[in-house]
Amino acid sequence: MKLQVVHRTTYEYAQPVTQNYNELRLQPVTQEGQTCDSFTLNLVPVPRLSHFLDFYLNYVHFFEVPDPHPSLSIESISQVVTAAARLSDDAVTANLDRLPECVRLEKCYDFLQPSTFVAAPPEVWRLALDVTHGQTDVWQAAVAIRRFIHGNFSYTPCVTGVNTHMLEFLKLRRGVCQDFAQLMLGMCRALKIPARYVSGYLYNEPRGKFLGAQASHAWCEVFVPDFGWHGLDPTNNRTADEHYVKVATGRDYADIVPVKGHYKGTPNRKMTVQVTVSELPIL
What we know:
The chain is α+β, with helices and mostly antiparallel strands and 283 residues long. It has two domains: 2-82 and 257-280, Immunoglobulin-like; 96-255, C8orf32 fold. The chain contains six helices and 14 strands. The protein has helices at 100-103, 106-109, 122-131, 138-152, 166-172, 177-190; strands spanning 2-24, 34-44, 48-53, 59-65, 69-82, 154-155, 174-175, 195-202, 217-224, 228-233, 238-239, 244-250, 259-264, 269-280. Strands 1, 2, 3, 4, 5, 13 and 14 form a seven-stranded antiparallel β-sheet that branches. A five-stranded antiparallel β-sheet has the order 11-10-9-8-12. A two-stranded parallel sheet has the order 6-7. Helix 5 links the parallel strand 6 and strand 7. It is globular and about 60 Å long.
């Protein structure tokens, strides 16, 4: 499937601001199952732009606008070719007794630890054990956690914020895709299943059947011995497939904030975000 993503973020300031510094994680990655054919970044005012790869190999664009400006517009346009999921829900993979191997893998270590918005206290460990009771397969245990979260928590916008910890969401039982993903991270890590946060986009098709597709989306990837990283979306109870465009991965939301920065001036501002994902013909 070939998808085009247009992501626009606009800031309107009550008074002109200066020294506006920003980091952007908006460029989709090219890796197994996904190819980013093109990426364009349009910024107004036009700044000096630089880019680099962060610790988790996400694309980061950095810019500054030193002179006074009343607004800031950030538009990214991406064209990405995606592929179907490599593991089905009923796939048989590695036995749970192989998970101790993951602790010794550098690529897994960070994704077994507590992070800014994710923790695995005893009550989360107990819940994860109950939810996966009877499972012996790593992938099947992760799928069971995904199904539990989808079936027992309500997708409710405007109840939580970007700084909501997964333990607060666990009490509220209401939130958005970020909260669903971070709770799944905590439950998987409690069982020593390496799990990382994924930010990106979800193509909703003309029928509009998916939750969280109106803006940036979030889901999880778990590491399965011999099979690598595979995506699971607890918000929609789906395995990540060709409808998903991956932009960045990290320990939780704190590592992959799409637009992050600071400026000097008035705190009064208005932010608007618009995301459009559409399918393109493959020529």
